[in-house]
Amino acid sequence: xxxxxxxxxxxxxxxxxxxxxxxxxxxxxxxxxxxxxxxxxxxxxxxxxxxxxxxxxxxxxxxxxxxxxxxxxxxxxxxxxxxxxxxxxxxxxxxxxxxxxxxxxxxxxxxxxxxxxxxxxxxxxxxxxxxxxxxxxxxxxxxxxxxxxxxxxxxxxxxxxxxxxxxxxxxxxxxxxxxxxxxxxxxxxxxxxx
Length: 194
Known about the structure:
Elements: H1 2-16, E1 27-34, E2 40-42, E3 45-47, E4 56-62, H2 69-82, H3 86-89, E5 92-98, H4 106-114, E6 121-123, H5 127-134, E7 141-147, E8 151-156, E9 160-163, E10 168-173, H6 179-193
Parallel strand pairs: 4-5, 5-6
Antiparallel strand pairs: 1-10, 2-3, 4-9, 7-8, 9-10
Helix pairs in contact: 2-6
């Protein structure tokens, strides 16, 4: 009887240590990819993705005239951030990199992002500077036709990238990721820190 109890106790400890690994809602990048240090301009001055060490950073390449994917993505990130504790939310930064430098000034980005969350940061620059930041992420964008009402539109990659606390690209999320899925990933990351 005593041996059976010891066996069951040992088995319980073994199984507790064999929890399934966390499955991210996006594609887990296979090796750490340091975020490019290329600075771009925000309303408050130069910003580099390397400036946020110690925080989880969501990077999205979009533009303020985007009629569909960009506002939905910003709303998803807002909803995920709102469900965190205040201390956790303070360690999560959202950065939108404009792929429309002709129309998106730092002021226009700030006004646009304030509709979603005052903490979101918009950055822009010359096309070659944006390319230097976008290329390591594999981001594609180009100017396409629009209408008389919209002017031109920008065709662009619609993924959201999560940087870890060391400014390494960790996860690439598809455009249809939900706030709940992002929240589950963030909660896992915060638990893993303790």
